[in-house]
Amino acid sequence: MDVLLIAGLWLDGSAWDDVASALRSLGHRPVPLTLPRSASATLDDQVAAVLTAVDATSGKPVVVGHSAACTLAWLAADARPDKISKVVLVGGFPASDGKPYADFFELRDGVMPFPGWEPFEGLDSADLDEEARRAFAAAAIPVPGGVATGVVRLTDERRFDVPVVVICPEFTPAQAEEWINAGDVPELARVKHLEFVDLDSGHWPMHTKPAELARLLASAAVDLP
C-alpha cells in the first residue's frame, strides 16, 4: 500500500525518515512529501503538490497528515474522494471550509518562523529532550505567509465517505471525541467511518515514537472498511 506522509508546519519530508524506514520493513511504500516552501508559495501550491502525489500512485493510497497538515490530507480527500482509501490524522484536525489554514503565529517578512518552544510547553513537547529541541529549531523551515493564511476550500461532500483514523498523541481518544461532539471539529462530525487510536507521545511522534507510529499507520493501511 502506498502511504503518503505530509508533515506539519516547519517540517519537510525528511521528518518521516525513521517512520518511512519502519513502514518499508512492514511491507508498505511510504511517500514522504516535501511541499513548496518558497516565500511566494501558496496553500493552493501545496494542495497541488499533494494531489500530484496522489495521482502518481498506482492504487488508492492512504494519506497521512500531521498537525496542521491534517487539513492538507483532508483537502486531498475532498479533491480525490474516489482515489484515496483512507485519511490518517496525526495530532490534529482538519480546518473547515472558509477558515485560514494555519494562521497560528505572527508573520515576519512574509513568513511564519518557528516561534520557539514556549507555545508548546507541556504535553506537546514533554518527550523531546534538549538535543532534539535544538535540532528541531535549527532545521525548522519558515512557513510561507500565503500558506499559513490561505483559505481552506472544501467542495465535495463525498469526502465524508472516505474513512478517517485519528491518531491521538498528546491528547486522548476520549478528548478527541469530546471536541468533535461539542462541535469544535465539524468536518469530522460528518465522517461516516471514523476511528480513534491512542499513541503515548508528544506532538511529534515521528521523532520520538517512529516505530510505534509506523505500526499504527501500517495497521490503518490494511484495515480498510
TrEMBL record:
The name this protein goes by in its record: Esterase
Highest taxon listed in the record's lineage: Bacteria
Molecular function GO labels: catalytic activity
AB hydrolase-1 domain boundaries: 3-215
Pfam entry (one): Abhydrolase_6
Alphabetical list of InterPro entries matching this protein: AB_hydrolase_1 (IPR000073), AB_hydrolase_fold (IPR029058)
Classification via SUPFAM superfamilies: alpha/beta-Hydrolases
